[in-house]
Design brief:
Number of helices of chain A: 8
Number of domains of chain A: 1
Number of strands of chain A: 2
Strand content of chain A: 5-15%
Order of helices and strands of chain A: HHHHHEEHHH
CATH topology of chain A: Arc Repressor Mutant, subunit A
Oligomer: homodimer
CATH architecture of chain A: Orthogonal Bundle
Radius of gyration of chain A: 17 Å
CATH class of chain A: Mainly Alpha
Chain lengths: 127, 127
DNA sequence: CAGGATCCGACACGATACTG
DNA sequence: CAGTATCGTGTCGGATCCTG
């Protein structure tokens, strides 16, 4: 193994998430409620917006578009546009986007691992 | 290895992040801009609020308090209060909180791995 | 030192309607 | 079908002041 950039070493060099470190920017990505969900929905390959909306469920058309645009700007997805009669568009994960699946999955696994503990969060509202 | 709950199997059972699944609640945790940072700052052991604020840097007193309260309700931290002359308080990660360090680290590592790609996000504002 | 109470601003989201 | 525009809203965060 050469000096390939796995990122692990660089990250460990930092103590907490410094305000100027890349990791903070990454957390801001997660700060979007839907962005991780959209990324996860794209894990099996390119999808069209409508298909995405149906697959995810509960997300508004505009919100999905907003997130896709942000993801595109962040370099997480590539937007493929096909000039056809009915305008067809497909979104595909970039390499960065695919690598993001791991952290997202880690969060998901963690969630199920402590599902019982986290139930308390929802149980907040008794009425 | 018995049927220990690693959470991995349960999570894989789901396709996308369903609206009612625990993973969505977990993502809502990350949706807080500071929460993961606070959790990460606590990785080495219990800390006092003031110490936390200094360590993290750039976080407001109230915001830190809000996040700590939310984390406490979510079962991520335990608040230890010592009835002394100068009121002393310490926050300590629960088991769920400690396990959350892994996903957070995963995001951090990912960030450095694709730091160059993510630079585009910041470079949005030329002025 | 810990933390609550407030007012305010930013931003993502929800909902609707409208253009290629 | 894909995307934009607009408006309203909720929530987190920033800033300030005040209480044990």
């Amino acid at each position: 193994m050469t000096v390939e950039s796995t990122g692990a070493v660089e990250f460990e060099a930092y103590g907490p998430f410094a305000a100027d470190c890349p990791a903070r920017a990454a957390l801001d990505l997660f700060a979007s409620r839907w962005l991780p969900v959209v990324v996860w929905a794209l894990r099996n390959g390119p999808m069209r917006p409508g298909e995405l909306q149906r697959t995810i469920g509960g997300i508004r058309h505009k919100v999905l578009t907003d997130n896709l645009r942000r993801m595109e700007n962040a370099g997480l997805v590539i937007r493929r546009r096909y000039a056809e009669a009915p305008p067809r568009v497909q979104y595909e994960l970039t390499e960065a986007g695919q690598d993001l699946l791991e952290p997202i999955q880690a969060v998901g696994v963690w969630a199920y691992r402590h599902a019982t503990t986290l139930q308390a969060m929802h149980a907040e509202e008794p009425d």
